[in-house]
Design brief:
Number of strands: 2
CATH class: Mainly Alpha
CATH architecture: Orthogonal Bundle
Structural class: mainly alpha
CATH topology: 434 Repressor (Amino-terminal Domain)
Oligomer: single chain
Length: 106
C-alpha cells in the first residue's frame, strides 16, 4: 500500500474553501491554529503574490506566519485584507438582544 502525505493546501482551491477554513480555525480558538490556517491559505494563494498585495516582504510573511510567531494585529489585518478575507466582529448569539452590540467589519 502506498500512502502520501496529506497537505491541506491541496484542498484550498476556491475562495469559499479558504474562507471556511479560516473561519473554522478562528472558531476552534487559539492563535497558533489561526496562524497555521492563515499560512496554509497564503501558500495556496502564493506567497509572492500575497507579499505584493499586502505590501509586506516575502521574508517578513514567512516570519509572521511561522509557528510560535507573535505578529502585530495590523500585520494580520493587512494579510487578511490582501487575501480578500477581512476579519469581522459580530455578537455571539447570547448577545443579539443587546442593541448596543452590532456587527462591525474591520
Amino acid at each position: 500500500m502506498k500512502t502520501s502525505k496529506f497537505d491541506v493546501v491541496d484542498y484550498l482551491d476556491s475562495e469559499e474553501m479558504m474562507a471556511e477554513y479560516l473561519c473554522a480555525a478562528m472558531e476552534e480558538g487559539g492563535t497558533d491554529l489561526f496562524l497555521r490556517a492563515l499560512r496554509d491559505v497564503a501558500k495556496a494563494r502564493g506567497i509572492t503574490q500575497l507579499a505584493k498585495d499586502s505590501g509586506l516582504g516575502r521574508e517578513s510573511l514567512y516570519k509572521t506566519l511561522s509557528a510560535g510567531a507573535k505578529p502585530r494585529f495590523d500585520t494580520i489585518l493587512r494579510i487578511t485584507r490582501a487575501l480578500g478575507v477581512p476579519l469581522t466582529v459580530r455578537p455571539e448569539a447570547a448577545h443579539t438582544n443587546n442593541p448596543a452590540t452590532s456587527s462591525v467589519a474591520l
